[in-house]
Write a structure and sequence with these properties.
heterodimer; A: mainly alpha; ABC transporter involved in vitamin B12 uptake, BtuC; about 0% strand; B: alpha/beta; Rossmann fold; seven-stranded mixed β-sheet; 15 strands; about 20% strand
Chain lengths: ~300, ~400
């Protein structure tokens, strides 16, 4: 039973990691129906920014909490700027082009950013400091749950709730929903569509940056390539949960995390990915729009 | 001029032969005088011919060219010193592009050139393809780089020797170390599903299963680059393993070690030269302490290695490439065998290789019955205070 609980928590951690990245993915898709492949790279850039800021602040002798907060804030600002700029450069000029063009542009952006960080920083793995402080009340449970895991669960849940509230109850959220339904109509009733899309990218990138900081502190190492694999898994999670749905992304990510964890624990890690993807295919056969996705009639 | 020199050499040789065993420096073989006399004139006509085979063009040329340079340096030096008992050494260099199908042609060509022995080939596949041809022609072959275990262990090629440890040497060392030095019995074997890591893990598993007191409690392949390895770490814990033997590279190793230590597990971690890398220590930080990893024996303090590297720099203006020291050692070992046995006959050379120690940049070596170099191989290192320290 202990083993089951450990695997359950392991899957929860892994799922929450996927979820933090999947949230931004699914939100951008929900609003402008673009699979933003560069999202994983934004996550990676967030982690690199936090690493640099944390390094400088540690040298200046700041305390742990202040470093975590400031590094996260800088990472969020920096990544949001990247997200904003990427949209303006790579997606906006081809917004009216067929969807495939935007997809190719996104893949190109992803490769560009990877190689940019590779050249500007390094191809080596870099140690990432554990920015998350040790909570004393967790000491007795250290072998089961670590502080970084607890923080990741909490933040994932909070981000999910905050995004849902933003989309459901704020005016920008209403504008987002309108834009998602019909860009032309939204523009006709006075919504600044460009601004709505920019905000979407900024918010999506901010969640990716938070994910970058927390996940890198949890794992303890980063390199220029981390965004790619994490991005693929997050994308799968978003599809599994129903792409475009915020709670769906989290649910999909958790299902994926648990699937992988239990399969590794009880069967074998050799075919972990194979099993995860077989599971995905299975779900999509029975629910083509994902677990929480709504199948909408195609607009004509 | 040439005639004159060879006549002079003949005279010297004749004198040597007559002197017989007195001139120990030129061989210890105490053959009946008549037999030696018969052999002597034949040897006089041509210099000792050393074949060098490997990829010298194509995309793997960087593996083969350092061996040619090593052979050139050794032979040049030797010839300046007067060759072996007055006989000069000549190099016959042939390209095999690392391809088995071409290597057979290369071998046939070298046999046709009547080489006395061959330094090469470089790639395991090409070496294997060529070995049969050399075996039929009774030509000893020494590779500086072919690591496939079967080349020596199958016993099919008594004419084959090598100055590099075989692929399974690291697994052997890891297993022996865990069982004999650390006195462990329950071992988890993990790998990263790659050629290198999985190959190593398979050997380690096979060696462990052959030991009655050892038990492989877990054998798993992990996904390289995954975001975390919590589930695998839990599985290791659940298996009750005292140690993990991991085949793979440092990014995965550092993640696993870090997650194990953070979960308050003190399971011993033993890995390979993919992990014996300073990046591992840098990334895993304090968690790297106590981790064991095998790596090539340290040759930086060997004066011959320093000299050979320096000679390469002077002649070619750059640092030597892959397998240079192994090739240098192989060339020295071959020439030493010829000198000690005072013969270029197959049986004499092979016998001398197996019995005579020779000082090389890799240390003082000789070869075992199967053709693997004794004294060449891997050493166990442990992370102590932030650096790898060799464990004697």
């Amino acid at each position: 039973m202990d083993y089951f609980l450990e695997l359950f928590l392991g899957g929860l951690t892994r799922g929450s990691i996927y979820a933090l990245i999947a949230l931004g993915y699914t939100m951008v898709y929900g609003i402008i129906e673009l699979i933003n492949f560069a999202h994983g790279e934004i996550y990676m850039i967030g982690a690199f920014t936090a690493l640099i800021v944390a390094g400088v602040l540690t040298l200046m002798g700041w305390n742990e909490i202040a470093i975590l907060v400031i590094a996260s804030i800088v990472a969020v600002i920096y990544s949001s700027a990247y997200g904003f700029t990427i949209e303006k450069i790579a997606y906006k000029p081809i917004r009216k082009a067929p969807r495939l063009s935007a997809l190719i542009s996104a893949i190109g952006m992803s490769m560009f950013l990877q190689n940019y960080v590779l050249l500007a920083q390094t191809s080596d793995f870099l140690p990432f400091p554990s920015l998350i402080p040790q909570f004393e009340f967790l000491e007795p449970y250290a072998h089961i749950i670590r502080p970084s895991e607890l923080v990741i669960y909490t933040v994932t849940a909070s981000v999910m709730v905050a995004l849902t509230i933003m989309i459901k109850f704020t005016s920008i959220g209403k504008a987002m929903r309108a834009t998602s339904q019909d860009k032309t109509m939204a523009a006709l009733v006075g919504i600044d569509v460009d601004r709505v899309i920019s905000v979407t990218f900024i918010v999506g990138s901010a969640t990716a940056a938070i994910g970058g900081v927390l996940i890198a502190s949890h794992i303890g190492q980063i390199n220029f390539y981390i965004g790619f694999i994490a991005g693929i898994k997050a994308f799968v999670a978003a599809v599994l949960g129903g792409i475009g749905s915020i709670p769906g992304a989290v649910l999909g990510a958790l299902v994926l995390g648990w699937t992988e964890s239990f399969f590794t624990g009880y069967v074998s890690s050799d075919y972990e990915d194979v099993f995860a993807f077989v599971f995905l295919v299975f779900i999509l056969i029975f629910r083509p729009a994902g677990i929480l996705g709504r199948s909408e009639a195609e607009k004509v | 001029m040439l005639k004159l020199r060879s006549a002079k050499a003949l005279a010297i040789m004749a004198a040597l032969v007559m002197a017989g065993a007195v001139f120990v420096s030129c061989g210890e073989s105490e053959k009946p005088a008549e037999q030696a006399k018969e052999a002597a004139p034949a040897k006089e006509e041509a210099p000792i011919r050393m074949g060098v085979a490997g990829p010298h063009s194509g995309d793997l040329a960087s593996y083969g060219i350092p061996t040619v340079k090593a052979a050139e340096l050794v032979v040049e030096h030797r010839n300046e010193m007067g060759g072996i008992c007055g006989q000069k050494i000549e190099l016959i260099v042939e390209d095999d592009v690392c391809k088995p199908e071409i290597a057979t042609n290369t071998a046939t060509k070298l046999v046709g050139e009547k080489v006395d022995f061959v330094l090469g080939h470089i790639c395991s596949g090409a070496t294997k393809a060529a070995l049969g041809i050399y075996k039929d022609s009774n030509i000893p072959v020494m590779s500086p780089s072919a690591t496939n275990p079967a080349l020596t262990q199958s016993g099919d090629y008594p004419n084959f020797f090598r100055t590099i440890a075989s692929d399974d040497a690291q697994a052997r060392l890891e297993v022996d170390f865990a069982l004999d030095r650390l006195k462990l019995s329950k071992i988890a074997v993990l790998h990263d599903k790659g050629d290198y890591g999985k190959g190593l893990a398979e050997f380690a598993k096979a060696f462990l299963e052959a030991e009655p007191e050892a038990e492989v409690v877990l054998y798993e392949g992990i996904t390289p680059g995954a975001v975390d390895y919590t589930a695998v770490v839990q599985k290791i814990k659940n298996s009750g393993a005292q140690a993990v033997i991991f085949g793979g590279y440092h990014p995965e190793a550092s993640k696993i070690v870090t997650q194990m230590r953070k979960k308050a597990m003190d399971t011993i971690f033993i890995s390979d030269d993919g992990v014996k890398d300073d990046t591992f220590i840098k990334v895993a930080g304090e968690y790297a302490e106590g981790v064991y990893a095998t790596g090539p024996m340290d040759t930086t303090t060997n004066p011959m290695a320093v000299m050979a590297t320096e000679a390469h720099r002077q002649k070619y203006g750059e640092d030597p490439g892959a397998f240079f020291l192994n090739a240098y050692a192989a060339a020295l070992a071959l020439l030493n065998a010829v000198e000690k046995s005072n013969s270029t006959d197959y049986d004499d050379i092979v016998n001398a290789l197996r019995t005579e120690y020779v000082a090389t940049p890799l240390g003082i070596i000789r070869f075992d019955e199967r053709g693997d170099a004794i004294g060449v191989g891997f050493a166990m290192y442990q992370v102590q205070n932030g650096e790898y320290v060799e464990i004697k």
